[in-house]
Amino acid sequence: MGSPPLVVGVTGSRRDGSYTRQAIEHALAAAERAGADTDHVDLGSVDLPLYHPDRDDADSGDAEELLARVRAADGVVVGSPNYHSTFSSTLHNFHDYCGYDEYEDTVVGLVVVAGGGTIGSPLDHLRITMRGVHAEVVPEQVGIRNASRYFEDGALTDRSLAERVNGVAEAVVEAARRRDLADEAASPSADD
Ligand SMILES: Cc1cc2nc3c(=O)[nH]c(=O)nc-3n(C[C@H](O)[C@H](O)[C@H](O)COP(=O)(O)O)c2cc1C
Question: Which of 11, 17, 52, 141 is 20 to 30 A away from residue 185, measured at CA?
């Protein structure tokens, strides 16, 4: 890598004023403070039809461009609202387009936002499905319960939650750097 790691945030909500989007923006700001470059794939503002296995990505709206942005990432922070005790269909639809090509050798951190009190099952489901595409999911994760209490004017106001979201982003940056060092050690360049 040598250069800063690239951390991409993926927001799995289409709602205007989404708390998930605000949490991902918070995570990306923390990743930048930790030395990463960042990009935000906000699924609330893309053209992404329902995944169809018989259709090429090139015929699927923004799919090709979005997949390329995830493939370029060293780390991804994935955020989803809790919808019926799992992650959102918006995120799931994007994830159906993705596979090993996007996530192999990629570090992933998880953030879930819930209107009520349940955050465990969507976090578990995300962890399992990210493992399914061979992502390296860091142990740090955050679930924000009763989300409307903790966001104001586009910001996460609860200090402890804010620090935990920072912690996920920092863990992703650190693990991406570790991976890069291990790769360099495994295949030294011709100048070494
Ligand atoms: C279809 C749907 C299902 C939901 N299911 C749950 C749920 O099972 N548990 C919960 O705590 N909140 C549930 N909620 C509330 C959302 O988690 C909450 O509104 C959250 O803030 C949405 O994320 P966003 O602000 O990023 O859009 C649901 C909302 C919708 C629209």
Answer: 141
Atom of ligand 1 nearest to the CA of 147: 21
Q: How far is the CA of 175 from the centre of ligand 1 (A)?
A: 30
Q: Ligand 1, from 84, 92, 142: best to mutate by most atoms within 8 Å of Cβ? A: 84
- Mean pLDDT confidence for 87-110: 98
Non-local (6+) Cβ contacts of 1 within 8 A are 74, 176, 177, 180, 184
Report how far residue 38's alpha carbon sits from residue 165's, in angstroms, rounded to the nearest whole number: 15
Domains defined along the chain, listed by start: 6-186 (3.40.50.360)
The residue among 132 and 185 whose pLDDT is bigger is 132
pLDDT at 191 over 60: no
Q: Is 18 left (phi over 0), alpha (psi -120 to 50) or beta?
A: beta
Residue 192 confidence (pLDDT) above 70: no
125-146 pLDDT, tens digit each? 999 999 999 999 999 999 999 9
Task: Check if 35 has its Cβ closer than 6 Å to any atom of ligand 1.
Answer: no
Residue nearest to atom 21 of ligand 1 (CA): 115
Nearest-CA residue for atom 17 of ligand 1: 114
Bridge-based pairing state of the strands 107-113 and 75-83 = parallel
